[in-house]
Design a protein that fits this description.
A 5-stranded parallel sheet has the order 10-9-11-1-12, sandwiched between helices. A 4-stranded parallel sheet has the order 3-2-4-5, with helices on both faces. Helix 5 links the parallel strand 6 and strand 7. The longest helix has 17 residues. It is an alpha/beta fold. The chain has 3 domains: 110 residues, 3-Layer(aba) Sandwich (Cobalt-precorrin-4 Transmethylase, domain 1); 83 residues, Rossmann fold (3-Layer(aba) Sandwich), CATH 3.40.50; 97 residues, Cobalt-precorrin-4 Transmethylase, domain 1.
Length: 314
């Protein structure tokens, strides 16, 4: 019996960004140089496949530094950490490597600069996300206020005349963030802007690539982890861009094939922390059920690379 035909519109760019690639490489190089175990505070990136692969190589993932034995080596995740974390590592004389994405570090630096200039910071982001916790932990308590929605802007209770600035989480919806920023400017015309765009190039590129394919698809599948902010935003972007259905799929074996059985054109992308091997796995699974044609839809090419910590290159 002939398989039904399926055209997959494969979005490019997709998958790993330079910050994720750097963070994973830091763990792998540390294991090669120092041997196992290497402790990692929090998931190095939000993807269980990546985490489990590094665990097999000798990485040990922990929630907090108090789980790291004396004399061990530890790496901080790509999402960034509050200042209290490296301070504690130094107090305990732990050797540590910081795998914070340089674009997240840029947000940290902007926040500190604005606070030194006497401004109260507003952080546009999602409460509880590790990047938000890390960014808020760069400043003294009460020096930064989290803003998640336009309603939050309307409900801000900041004394009149307080100099303000804002920064944003790097993995947000570009469109949602623009709306919140517009609300901030409307309510606080003198609010200072970041020196440059905070939402990272990879988040923006992946969202724009999804917009290009969304209207042509019966559905869009985003390969990524449930706790990945940028992956969840891609699902939202696909729906807003005109696609009738969209879903986040962690692995091919978690796909709800019945839900998408009638699809004849399927958009496919991956969040910035999802490895390409999971995209290939999903395409292979589609091939078992459909007569698949791949159409690559390229918005732009990415060739950004970030330097590794000096301790691993000296």
């Amino acid at each position: 019996m002939a398989k039904p035909e399926l055209t997959i519109l494969l979005a490019q760019p997709r998958g790993f960004c330079a910050g994720v690639d750097r963070a994973i490489h830091i763990v792998e190089l540390a294991l090669e140089r120092y041997g196992k175990p290497i402790y990692v505070r929090h998931e190095i990136v939000h993807n269980r496949f990546v985490v489990e692969n590094l665990e097999r190589k000798g990485a040990v993932f922990v929630d907090e530094l108090d789980e790291v034995p004396e004399g061990a080596k530890v790496i901080f995740s790509a999402h960034g950490v509050p200042k209290s974390v490296p301070d504690e590592a130094e107090r305990r004389e732990l050797f540590y490597l910081d795998a914070t994405c340089p674009l997240v570090s840029k947000v940290h630096n902007q926040a500190q600069h604005q606070q030194r200039n006497g401004r109260h910071l507003l952080l546009i982001g999602h409460e509880g996300h590790p990047e938000v916790i890390g960014t808020m932990g760069q400043l003294p308590e009460n020096a930064m206020t989290l803003v998640e929605t336009e309603d939050d802007v309307a409900n801000l209770d900041i004394p009149a005349g307080t100099p303000l600035s804002y920064v944003t989480q790097t993995t947000l919806s570009v469109d949602d963030t623009a709306a919140i920023v517009a609300s901030l400017h409307k309510r606080y015309p003198d609010i200072a802007e970041p020196g440059s765009e905070d939402i990272c190039y990879a988040t923006t590129n992946r969202q724009e690539a999804v917009k290009v394919i969304a209207e042509r698809c019966d559905a869009v599948i985003v390969i990524g982890a449930p706790n990945s902010s940028n992956s969840n935003r891609l699902v939202e972007v696909a729906l807003r861009a005109g696609c009738a259905d969209a879903a986040l799929v962690e692995r091919a074996n978690t796909m709800d094939w019945d839900r998408f059985a009638k699809c004849r054109t399927l958009g496919l992308t991956a969040g910035a922390s999802a490895p390409e091997t999971l995209v290939e796995e999903f395409i292979d699974a589609c091939g078992e059920r459909f007569d698949v044609t791949i159409e690559r839809v390229t918005l732009r090419e990415e060739n950004i690379q970030f330097n590794l910590p000096r301790a691993l290159t000296a």
